[in-house]
């Protein structure tokens, strides 16, 4: 059985993690966002804002973590696995921050393709910032547009999840897979 890899993406503060948690409550297999782990690991090493101080290193760690998730999902005994963000997210953010990166990033996105992409639109009413989320809502809007265009660049047709209550958003996704 081929396990389908399904990405839940969107700009900062759009509800991705909440949906992932709700999917887990329903018994779905999910992989969590790796960026928070990378940020916390860097802080333990004395680097307060790795993505600002060493953006290429930060992005490389994200790419590696998401590739590990992609490969691990292949071995899951399930019809599908949900992932909180995908490989193209790394490139979208690097493009947003106007950061140069090696061709390996493009090659990785081309060679490792997901089966379905759900994108959550910016939603000011639920947006909050925290210790790992530094962007303003206006920046989140711009990042969202980069996410849409980057996924489309790699041949995906992202399905936009409507702005509904968490249970309804989760059901929308489950009904579309």
Overall description:
51% of the residues lie in helices and 12% in strands. It has a single domain (4-176), classed as 3-Layer(aba) Sandwich (Rossmann fold). The protein has 177 residues and is an alpha/beta fold. A 5-stranded parallel β-sheet has the order 2-3-1-4-5, with helices on both faces. It is globular and about 40 Å long. The longest helix has 20 residues, at 55-74.
Summary tags:
alpha/beta; 177 residues; globular; five-stranded parallel sheet; Rossmann fold
Helix-strand blueprint:
Blueprint: E1 4-10, H1 16-25, E2 30-31, H2 35-44, H3 50-53, H4 55-74, E3 80-84, H5 87-96, H6 103-111, E4 116-120, H7 137-153, E5 159-160, H8 166-176
Parallel strand pairs: 1-3, 1-4, 2-3, 4-5
The topology string of helices and strands comes to EHEHHHEHHEHEH
Using only C-alpha atoms, the radius of gyration works out to 15 Å
Q: Tally the helices.
A: 8
The overall pLDDT average reads 90
| Alpha-beta content class | alpha/beta
- Described by the principal axes of the CA atoms, the overall outline is globular
Q: Name the poorly predicted regions.
A: none
CATH superfamily: P-loop containing nucleotide triphosphate hydrolases
Proportion of β residues? 5-15%
Largest sheet: 5 strands, parallel
N- to C-terminal separation?
16 Å
Helix content range: 40-55%
Number of strands: 5
Number of domains: 1
Kindly provide the name of the CATH class. Answer: Alpha Beta
């Amino acid at each position: 059985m081929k396990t389908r890899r399904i990405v839940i993406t969107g700009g900062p503060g759009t509800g991705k993690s909440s949906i992932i948690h709700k999917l887990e409550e329903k018994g779905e297999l999910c992989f969590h966002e790796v960026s928070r782990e990378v940020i916390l690991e860097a802080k333990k090493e004395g680097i307060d804002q790795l993505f600002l101080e060493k953006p290429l290193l930060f992005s490389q760690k994200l790419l590696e973590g998401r590739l590990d998730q992609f490969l691990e999902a292949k071995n899951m005994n399930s019809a599908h696995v949900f992932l909180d963000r995908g490989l193209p997210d790394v490139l979208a953010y690097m493009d947003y921050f106007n950061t140069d990166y090696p061709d390996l990033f493009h090659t990785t996105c081309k060679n490792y393709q997901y089966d379905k992409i759900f994108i959550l639109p910016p939603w000011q009413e639920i947006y909050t910032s925290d210790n790992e989320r530094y962007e303003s809502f206006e920046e989140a809007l711009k990042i969202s547009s980069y996410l849409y265009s980057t996924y489309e660049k790699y041949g995906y047709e992202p399905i936009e999840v409507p702005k509904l209550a968490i249970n309804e958003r989760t059901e929308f996704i489950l009904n579309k897979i």
